[in-house]
Amino acid sequence: MKRTPSFERLFTSPKQWNLFFIFVIFVLAVFSIRTVDTRRKIDFSIEYGLFGTRKDLSHGSLEVTLKTLVKKDGPQDPVAVPDIEEICPHAHYQAERSLVGSSNGTASAEEHIRVLQGAGSRQRIALYTGAYNHIRDGVSMTLNRMVKYLLAQGHEVLVLAPTNSHPVINHAGKLSPVPSLQIPGRGDYQLSTFLTKELKEELEEFRPTVVHIATPDPVGWQVQKWAVQHEIAIACSFHTHFTSYMSYYGLGFLENYAWDLTRKFYNQCHHTYVPSYGIADELRHHGVKHGLLLWTRGVDTDVYSPRKKCPALRQKLKIKNDEPVVLLACRLVWEKGLQVYVDVIKRLEAQGIKHKSVVAGDGPARAKMQQLLPNTIFLGAQKPEQLSCTYASSDVYIFPSRTETFGVTIAEAMASGLPVVVANASGPAMMVQHGVNGYMAPPTDSKVFFDYAKELVTDSELRQRMSKSGREIAVQTFHWSEVFNNLVNYYDVLAEAISPR
Ligand SMILES: *[C@@H]1O[C@H](CO)[C@@H](O)[C@H](O)[C@H]1NC(C)=O
Ligand SMILES: *[C@@H]1O[C@H](CO)[C@@H](O)[C@H](O)[C@H]1NC(C)=O
Description:
Layout: H1 7-10, H2 14-34, H3 41-50, H4 55-58, H5 62-70, H6 84-87, H7 89-97, H8 106-116, E1 124-128, H9 138-152, E2 156-161, E3 174-177, E4 180-183, E5 186-192, H10 197-206, E6 210-213, H11 218-229, E7 233-237, H12 242-248, H13 255-267, E8 271-274, H14 277-285, E9 292-294, H15 311-316, E10 325-329, H16 338-350, E11 356-360, H17 366-372, E12 377-380, H18 384-392, E13 396-399, H19 408-415, E14 420-423, H20 426-431, E15 438-441, H21 446-458, H22 460-477, H23 480-497
Parallel strand pairs: 1-2, 1-6, 2-3, 6-7, 7-8, 8-9, 10-11, 10-13, 11-12, 13-14, 14-15
Antiparallel strand pairs: 4-5
Domain Glycosyltransferase subfamily 4-like N-terminal: 137-302
Transmembrane segments: 17-36
Keywords: Glycosyltransferase, Membrane, Transferase, Transmembrane, Transmembrane helix
């Protein structure tokens, strides 16, 4: 094996320094803007000074901001949020069993082992990800589940990822922490800094057959470089659409630069796994030439299921039987299209259409949203076992985000039997069959979103029909064992073709 270059030598060329710093500044910029909370004056002035043109500032005028400054907390919930695990038997059952924070999904994985054993080779997979156990989001949950599945199938996995002192996920597999910086003001984000000499030695000792890189951050690049030097197969998975976040934050002028980086990064991966055809087209359009493969995300259709319906939950939340529940579940950040959701609910209210709006999830936009929607029930962040009851006990799912690469929550809602109204954007468009299990609306068109929402809220037969179709699509397409099986096949092909044995 070749000698690993020392840390000093890795960054000697000016170009790489350049790339690295611009990337760090960009990431810091994006995350520090996202920390903005109108209740904090300092953040506000920084934001206003630097990013005066930002969209959601225009409706958060100085007056509103000062008012919220005085009021320490957002408006109180009209209904206290119940402890779902106490009142919903399924949630309780699920919580007791959760390993990776969710289901007993291993059963289906084990079934597959029996079928597959001997079919493929054992792989040694080194996974690098920017999110593994310190934050609970779609990426970290998927990767934990993936590692759990790979280990159950007899593959070896070494995970390299940043971590912190209070991990929120009981992670799967062996984790080697990568040094990282905390993003200012965001306790839950860590930016990896360097692939240290020790980590490189660990990689060399592990002798991976496949290096899987899930995050194209500075360490992602270093891991890629390491793999190139050692002639090991590089599999990359595309999870976060950084470039589309940029135009949202008024950083559009960096977009070309970001695409250059993106192209360069993914062109050095032997495979790039994308969650939807739309993303594949977009990457191809921007010059990612080869190795694009579809790897959809899955959803645990046993956890997210109409059987999780919990009448006691509706009762506790004081929702009447004849009030269809309109649900939104995601991290509450404005770029998820929250303003559209707010508009839809306001229109439903203005027209006196009987419904109850429920929002699950937490985030910087929550306080403002609670102000705008005083009649909505905000449940806060929920664990999967609680969320599954929330979905199944709702009636319509509205999710206007257009930055999703896949839209895990849409798949979860479908599996739970909810008709959906989503933005017509690449991720969602792959899951939703317009008019069959829900509707797609132009991403920012609140009026169209409202029309579809109204149709579903007022027509229970339509809801039932779409609920059934959505569940069927979810079960057929997004079952985890299918999803990971595909991945292992990809690894096999790749390792066979490229990695030294
Ligand atoms: C979860 O556990 C229950 C009870 O043992 C079982 O009926 C169900 O099939 C399991 N689901 C999965 C995915 O293993
Ligand atoms: C979604 O967008 C695509 C491409 O812009 C368009 O062809 C399609 O008709 C749209 N679908 C719906 C339901 O609006």
